[in-house]
Specification:
This is Dienelactone hydrolase family protein. By secondary structure, the chain is α/β, with parallel strands linked by helices. It contains eight helices and eight strands. The chain has a single domain, classed as Rossmann fold, CATH 3.40.50.1820.
């Protein structure tokens, strides 16, 4: 009886400690900038699992991008919200956000180096299956993950949520190795119809495995519950619960299919 009770207590203790684990991990980009990553995984899962990089909105590495890393961990992924600005900085002010974003995108090689530094950090985690890797991004981050796909960064799939679509350097034929999913709000005033058309043409010419989803009635920032508050700065933003949930479900199916194919 005592052995059975002890066994039950040990089982209960293990279950009690099985939860989403998180930690901030400092790292350094190729340009010498000190970065801060936010890592999340489910310790109830044994062994390595696919890894997904999360790239923040133009506000920087804030609570929203960290929450998305936890959400991915709950789905069974090894997830790292990376830092594209340095020192983990973030802001609530559009003027500061614009300055941070412009500085991060001023040099395409430096931006790629910062992304790759985060990707390498994710790969180094013992919970990550480095043979199965993806990335998601929001707003500014959506552009970043699309640019990484354009440049042939070794990822299996990327998902852009209300991301900027325009680029100075289009993908060359055969350069896009990752599957690409774009979740776009039909009422996103920050992305033009020309941008949408140019992206579709670019992906076709590049021979990419590309999906574009237009979410009816959704504005820029549709996935972030804080978008309505940010709209108070005079920005055309808005949270859309239906679009948020649909796009997240689309992402789940996308990665399930993408990573399942790696086992074949």
């Amino acid at each position: 009886m005592r052995l059975r009770l002890l066994s039950l207590l040990m089982t209960f203790s293990a279950l009690a400690h099985a939860e989403i684990q998180t930690q901030e991990i400092p790292y350094t980009a190729a340009d010498g900038t000190r970065m801060i990553g936010y890592y999340a995984y489910d310790d109830a899962i044994e062994g390595a699992r696919p890894g997904i990089v999360v790239v923040h909105e133009w506000w920087g590495l804030n609570d929203y991008s960290k929450r998305r890393a936890r959400d991915l961990a709950e789905l069974g992924y090894s997830a790292l919200a990376i830092d594209m600005y340095g020192e983990g900085k973030n802001t609530e002010h559009p003027k500061d956000a614009m300055g941070f974003m412009e500085a991060a995108l001023a040099n395409a090689d430096a931006a790629k180096g910062r992304f790759n530094a985060g990707l390498e950090l994710l790969k180094a985690q013992p919970q990550t299956d480095a043979s199965r890797l993806g990335a998601i991004g929001y707003c500014f981050g959506g552009k970043v993950v699309l640019d990484m796909a354009r440049q042939g960064v070794p990822l299996d799939g990327v998902v852009s949520f209300h991301g900027a679509l325009a680029t100075a350097t289009r993908a060359a034929p055969g350069s896009v190795k990752a599957r690409v999913l774009v979740e776009h709000g039909s009422e996103d005033s920050m992305v033009s119809e020309d941008d949408i058309g140019a992206l579709a043409t670019e992906m076709v010419k590049a021979g990419a495995d590309f999906q574009f989803v237009s979410l009816p009635g959704a504005k820029h920032g549709f996935s972030n519950p804080n978008a309505d508050a940010h709209a108070g700065h005079g920005l055309d933003l808005g949270y859309d619960k239906q679009a948020d949930e649909r796009s997240w479900a689309d992402m789940q199916r996308f990665f399930e299919t993408t990573f399942a194919s790696k086992r074949l």
